[in-house]
């Protein structure tokens, strides 16, 4: 069939990769983000409020204003605009360079714009982007075999985002519970733990214990989450805590026959990089086996070499019944997520019972195959394990009184800022620390940004440091040096010299 009226021209981006830029009525006159010769994004900027006039680059301030004005306020970003990135480095529209210590919440483990992954994206995009699962495509089967082989599971259920993978696992576990465990229809329970984070969809927030995630979104899905009935407990209900094996023991003792699955993050990411006691996951696995309950490990943040192993559960030699992957499964290049399980579980779902138009699309599969190859061939697990030690040792060596704790595994780490101590010390020096003058971990992140390091609080006073695993050791140590300087700044800077959210 003849191509449509759309024509394409070739252009070279900053990495030398050839891209095809569509030249049609849609792109012209609208905001677009072509890669130009020096790798900078440009947008067309007009005078009448629309970006349809002469070409000019928008400043960080202008871009942030556009987001605030025209996009939902469902995030509270740090005031920095990513325009270009490579490896562990990021540049804003003004050309300022930063060391990325967040990796898009562990999605760019392989480094920003990894040339091999980007090349796979471009090559596949020029060939076939979407077949839908109404038909087969020439990449999905290859991806399915590869991801199964790498992680040691029979089958994959492909999805797009992390939350979708979790939702899919909830459905799969319920189906398994009815078909294989003979739980009476409508009674299956899926247990999780307090302070979990598995995404933002309704089914997923039904399991959350975070009021910000839940309030105003009621009613929730029944029979999922960390609360379970216990007549002996106060109020007749108990909360299953992370890292407390006795809680799961009690829940399964009381409700085991109706429990289809237990869902857990091997390390709680959004809760503040909470590492459970050694042996916890192994004991969880044994309890699940004893009660014929599926163990689902959400490795969306912890997986894919981040903690020094391909999966964090491998630190305890645990093989879950279901593994959830997302984020770095594409190296940050495309949304790809996956549910992994063996046939006896996966085949509980039959044609027509679950799906997604984009799940398993050729672009996602091509990108993901290369993203996995990069993880393995560059041995990023070993690199994460080694650099993680370097990071924790160097931060501890700062000997800052404002560092309450340094914890983590591999390159998934948290530095807990002792805000109380900082404010008490300042108060003792006669300084005002009330209201906006209080020194916080958030302000610490603004100071880091000012000095060229990007990190964010994950939970109150906990700052997560999770750089791309390809980060150079020298850059990691430079980041630690800046962390040290900013800790001093947090205590000693004059109020008038503190960075504000408006400064870019
Ligand atoms: C452990 C975990 N599960 C699930 C998700 C949700 O992933 P997504 O934002 O792609 O839906 C996240 C995201 O941060 C996560 O950390």
UniProtKB/TrEMBL annotation:
This enzyme's EC code(s): 2.6.1.13
Enzyme class at the top of the EC tree: transferase
GO terms, molecular function: identical protein binding; ornithine aminotransferase activity; pyridoxal phosphate binding
Pathway assignment: Amino-acid biosynthesis; L-proline biosynthesis; L-glutamate 5-semialdehyde from L-ornithine: step 1/1
Low complexity compositional bias, start-end: 26-42
Ranges for region Disordered: 26-55
Matching InterPro entries: Aminotrans_3, Aminotrans_3_PPA_site, Class-III_PLP-dep_AT, Orn_aminotrans, PyrdxlP-dep_Trfase, PyrdxlP-dep_Trfase_major, PyrdxlP-dep_Trfase_small
Alphabetical list of Pfam families matching this protein: Aminotran_3
One GO term of the biological process aspect: L-proline biosynthetic process
Cofactor(s) the protein requires to work: pyridoxal 5'-phosphate
GO cellular component: cytoplasm
Protein origin, superkingdom: Eukaryota
Keywords, alphabetical: Aminotransferase, Pyridoxal phosphate, Transferase
Assigned protein family: Belongs to the class-III pyridoxal-phosphate-dependent aminotransferase family.
PANTHER family: AMINOTRANSFERASE CLASS III, ORNITHINE AMINOTRANSFERASE, MITOCHONDRIAL
UniProt-recorded name of the protein: ornithine aminotransferase
